[in-house]
Amino acid sequence: MPRTAPLVYTPGHHPKSEAWILPRGPALLRRGKLIVVEGIDGSGKSTQIKLLHKWLEAHGHQVVFTEWNSSDLVRQATKRGKKKNLLTPTTFSLLHATDFADRLTYRIIPYLKSGMTVLADRYIYTAFARDIARGVDPRWVRDLYGFAVQPDAIFYFRVPIDVAVGRIVGSRAKIKFYEAGMDLRLSPEPVESFRLFQGRVLDEYDRLAVEYGFQVIDGTKPIDTQQQQVRSKVSRLYSQQAAEA
Q1: Sheet architecture: strand order including 33-38
Q2: CA quadruple 206, 212, 213, 216: dihedral sign
Q3: What is the pTM for the complete model shown?
Q4: What pLDDT sits at residue 28?
Q5: CATH number for the domain whose boundaries are 26-158+209-238
Q6: Per-residue b or e along 228-238, where b marks 16 or more CB atoms closer than 10 Å to that residue's CB
Q7: How far apart are CA 111 and CA 20, in angstroms?
Q8: Which of 201, 230, 232, 233 ranks highest by number of CB atoms within 10 Å?
């Protein structure tokens, strides 16, 4: 029977015999590179992608940046839904998929075709990790993003949950409602809810890292050390492209 809506799903329980492979996109005829960063909130990934952006431009690469949940098409709808606490896990998932589809069409694919490098602060793996942590069925989420282009590199900045909590609490006056998973009613206390929800997300990311071959970076190391690791791997990516040209 065809699945038309998410089924109830218990985070942590995954199908064992099925794999989801994203198309690299021969029909896309792309010449550019798609580089993605992932990680839980407080992982430091945004700092790293900004540093990488500057470094690539300094070395003559044409670079475009895109980030999660930034499409004008659904931004206001998402904002209104969050403000009134109206978003169910399924609604949240569909809104983010719409946002992604719009950005893929207008902010990613055209630039890849023109030979530019696209840097994405979060990609479909954010949806996989967060939506599954909220109880959405893994197959349904992956099917929802079946049109996505496979990245050339996925950097996963991994930090323990206590480190992430410390960074968020130390840098923000207030933790956001959905960021903390308060909609799931895991705890009435925002910091503890954040810890529990992001802990779920972290577990999903660790599974995705194996499934999709993420390049794992220790997010607790000094910023410069992390950046050097990223640059080294990206340099090899471009060297490989030059050798194949």
Answers
A1: 63-67, 117-121, 33-38, 153-158, 215-218
A2: negative
A3: 0.85
A4: 54
A5: 3.40.50.300
A6: ebbeeebeeee
A7: 25
A8: 201
